[in-house]
Specification:
Chain lengths: 335, 335, 335, 335
């Protein structure tokens, strides 16, 4: 049983704690949050003791690994401290909003022996994973195009958006990682276009976009289109299409059930899609924990690691530059 | 070019006339209707002369074949006359509402050399046909169960229903033929249950049902369920499911286009199904003419002939008896 | 926290134990199985002590309620003992294979104050439940027809089938309960037809069927068709269609993910359906525990109780008689 | 009855001739082709006389209108001649591959009174049209993003590709028109990326691409993505997605029938999509003729005219420039 401590007891930390507690090969060791009542609540729910400090966790002999689900600005520090403490970690994305900070972190942890798994959970979604496996199995021949549709059900509050790093770093970052995962090749060119259509005035004020289209291209000419929106009223829209010279696979959206309604007005009308990431990616989050336990138990490299987090951020930076300058940006220009 | 005369210029005769006119190997020879303006209109539309009488058609050397789309009570007579005149025919279903009359007709035309094709057009529906082909090709292994859903979009007027012969003879007759076609074996046992749910008072008065469920069974134990309703507000509901020990095929409904709507209330909402037989079975009616031209040109037996019409009526009679007596009726009890 | 003891640590008891352990308002108190290693394994997994006997459980002040997941032949006894001990219970279906035994049990527990919930989990399936709610909300107008498709992925072993009570008592029993739930009226007439198509010789020997079609009818004329097969190679086939004079709803099958494949041979090809009840009804089993906790905490009657279990068995007996005699059987003839 | 002459009896001219012949308010007047046997065959099929020359057609008092389906390099000339002869025309797309030639033609026909309808048939597709109507009706709120998927089933022969004008002028031209139609606003910025993935060597030699991704943007910030490929083995892939702040509509692909197959390997597997434009857009081509007859009869402007043809070509030129220069091209830079 891998004894995992959870740092951060917000919405996502809470979910990870429950997944760890339910996992047959993992055990929730302890939890921590700067907001003590949150930590206490999660601790009580799973009958463990809350940790008195992060220091205590890193020092504890009863903690085999840590899951970092604190605020983004603490991720890089905690990664460095976990490396120093020799604790394998599963760290929520992103590593940091600043590429300079990420690069500095990379420098400091160079040669680290402990597993650093990044929380790009979508790679573990059963549908997206089956899509990737189909390509690997040759089902669609040579991959030519990838289309990623990624739209949130509703815009986050302004307070969140202001510190989010913007649509490319905050939202598209998942899609950049997915693009790399699905393409099986590194994108070399990035084109991005941002629009302010949902809340134009606010977007203008905070210098962000709420709607975006991106085109990536690899050295061999494979193409990937990503479209993003902060507001899809029909639910969280998460689709992946892989097109090749021998076929296509599409990983579609999930609904809460398979009820179809037929009336004088419409046929086959189903429920809106699962509303947001906790529900939509329930199985991915569970599988992510399994993969982490596996890589620690077997001393294998994580399925998705630190460098993947850094590369996704490089693509986000390239997209920001492309949207600003109206031209293709080479990934080499960034980092 | 097979020169075909159309007898009866109602809704269905009109459609057949247009299909014949557009067919590359057929030619509309002439048309007839007891209601002269109807005949004139169809004749003008296709630039042919309307016939002065049915006699003239049967006597004409310029008519190679006839399509009988007159009222049901004339079908058996016209079949006998067409046989006498040596004209191959495509006759709309049913042969007659009276099994005795059908049997008498069978007696009189015994040994007829001309092709008699019955208008069970659903056998030619591309989806239903592909389902049958899949079974023949062994795709679902041995067929075990057939489910036929057959619901009209709205009840016919009372005047029609009163002379229709009842739901089993008028509506389920198509499904009985389809069941025989799809099962590939003769049903030996019939169970039927009729209900009065849409217009109970009127149904009671005319001694008919508007809702029905049927179970057929062949000697080898294959089962077929048919459900009927006179009122499906979401459009003409015409589905066929074939289930076997190695798989299943389902021939579904057709819509006017493939638009899907996604809103805060529903996802994947499509248009109602094509409203009625002329639209839904457009391709079947076209294919039926082709099959008729083929069987006349090649002197091959029709895909669906007089005896098929008789056997479907026998099943309808068995269903009527079963619904009345609350027991399984053996086909042998009827005819 | 409701402290629940689980009796029976087979496949289904194990699943219930995990669901209880993960439930926010329930706690796994203890477990019991006549096969000690099974009980020990489940106890260890959830860090509880296995009970030394059923007596100990019924006598324990630390057990608030019991979940009965032992073999069918013990259900009625344990129900009687739980009633005597004043412990509310969730009992797996069926109550017993013998209607006489069930009636005797009913007599003995008459006036019982503790909740007796029957394990007809399908009533809690999100899709089936949404279908029922749609009818209640008037979405399809007056309900006219119900079609239940219920096919297992593969036949159970002969040893199981021999003591199963036959296809109507063992398999269709779920569908009879679902029919009652969905019709919202009691079926009064039953017609059933059984076939031996998958393993005819074995079925003949044990006097059972592997394929069945059923038609139920309520006093008001509502109709319900059920079709059953022991072998659907494409996965566990569990569909419910509710048809009314203002529309239709269909609760369809669930797949492990939403991947669709497009090739030169086929479009939209998805994965086989979830293979069997543990996977397909995962959410139903979870919701069933919640409903049980609710009814105990609030002292409300269970959503599905002892009499529902008895009535489903009455319908099964009627189906057996109907299949043997080839006629409609009135429920009043049975019990 | 509008008497229409068809110029060009290739595959598409032949189809138009049949549609005109079958149209209730149109009549096929005559046909012409430089390859006499083709003209004779189509004339015989529809029992009309083939014209001896194009001059004869333009001079004929028995010809009310012309349908131009000759080779692309003759379109502009015939448009000018039809204008001079006062004959309304339906001209197949594109007007010409050279924007200079199109602009010269525009100059020469300035002030023309006769209807000039361009053959952008996709605007008449029932699904695409219903999508556009849904937007107009406010169903999806304000339109934000359009995604057009447009992939041919198989690459055309090299001989065709060499004179086609390239993927943007030949293939994407339809999508550019559809984008303008669906966006309801003029695109102002064009980004395009071309790849050589299907037949890289040949594409290199002829200086063309076989795979492309495009992003368009209007002044208000609406975005449109188009993806193209010359080879979709699962059939002609023609999808349109319209996304707005209150919902989404998707116009999907059509299949020859609605058969779904279920096996141990896959569920819901349908037939490949209709293979190419004649089949896929059958109804669009019919509706296009109706719209043409309407605009001539009622002296209303055509739904899609000369300037639409010119603007689509401007977008194609912008795409070519963008793909070459790796930057956003403003439409104003082109024409």
């Amino acid at each position: 049983m891998l004894r995992i401590a959870v740092l951060g007891c917000g919405r996502i930390g809470r979910m990870h704690a429950a997944n760890i507690a339910a996992h047959p090969r993992a055990k929730l060791a302890t939890v921590f949050d700067t907001h003590q009542p949150s930590a206490d609540e999660v601790a009580a729910r799973h009958r463990v003791d809350a940790a008195v400090s992060v220091d205590a966790i890193f020092a504890s002999a009863d903690v085999d690994a840590v899951l970092i689900a604190t605020t983004t600005d603490t991720h890089a520090d905690y990664i460095e401290r976990a490396v120093a403490a020799g604790k394998p970690m599963l760290c929520e994305k992103p590593i940091d909003l600043s590429l300079a900070r990420v690069n500095a972190c990379a420098e400091r942890i160079k040669g680290a022996r402990v597993a650093i798994q990044l929380g790009f959970n979508r790679r573990f979604d059963p549908g997206h994973l089956a899509a990737r496996e189909a390509v690997r199995a040759g089902e669609i021949g040579t991959l030519h195009q990838v289309i990623i549709t990624s739209r949130d059900p509703a815009p986050a509050p302004r307070a969140y958006l202001e510190v989010s790093g913007g649509i490319f770093r905050d939202m598209a970052i998942h899609d950049f990682d997915l693009a790399r995962f699905l393409l099986g090749e590194e994108p070399e060119e990035v084109f991005a276009s941002g629009s302010r259509l949902i809340e134009p005035a606010m977007m203008q004020e905070i210098g962000d976009y709420d709607t975006a289209m991106i085109v990536l291209r690899t050295a061999s000419g494979k193409q990937c289109h990503i479209n993003n929106s902060r507001k899809a009223v029909y639910g969280y829209d998460q689709r992946v299409e892989l097109f090749g010279d021998a076929g296509m696979v599409i990983s579609g959206n999930r609904k809460p059930h398979e009820l179809a309604r037929f009336s004088a007005a419409a046929t086959g009308a189903a429920a809106p899609f699962l509303n947001f990431f906790i529900e939509r990616y329930r199985e991915s989050y569970e599988a992510e924990i399994s993969a982490f336990v596996d890589c620690v138990e077997r001393s294998t490299p994580p399925e998705v690691g630190f460098e993947d987090g850094r590369k996704a951020l490089v693509l986000a930076e390239a997209a920001i530059k492309s949207a600003a300058e109206g031209r293709v940006v080479n990934v080499g220009e960034i980092g």
